[in-house]
Design brief:
84 residues; alpha+beta; elongated; three-stranded mixed sheet; 3 strands
Length: 84
């Protein structure tokens, strides 16, 4: 068995202007198997929150999928340098 780290990085932004022809909520992901529209769980949660809190204007969510095995973690730790 090999330990792995599974996590996502989420970036939520409110762009200054609404692009023409775009909806008010957009989800982008760096993994090709992750849906980017209404089927995405982050989209559904954000949509509900925006509606309940009556937030106006566009919101963009960027999802970065991160899956690290023990070799990846060693490389990240080595690149970070010695702990202070």
């Amino acid at each position: 068995m090999v330990p792995v780290s599974l996590y996502d990085e989420l970036e939520i932004r409110r762009p200054r202007s609404k692009p023409v022809g775009q909806g008010r909520l957009k989800v982008f992901c760096d993994h090709p198997m992750v849906p980017s529209g209404r089927r995405n769980l982050a989209y559904q949660a954000a949509s509900l929150l925006l509606r309940k809190k009556r937030v106006e204007g566009p919101v963009h969510i960027r999802i970065r999928k991160r899956i690290l095995d023990s070799n990846d973690r060693r490389r990240v730790k080595k690149a970070a340098g010695p702990a202070a």
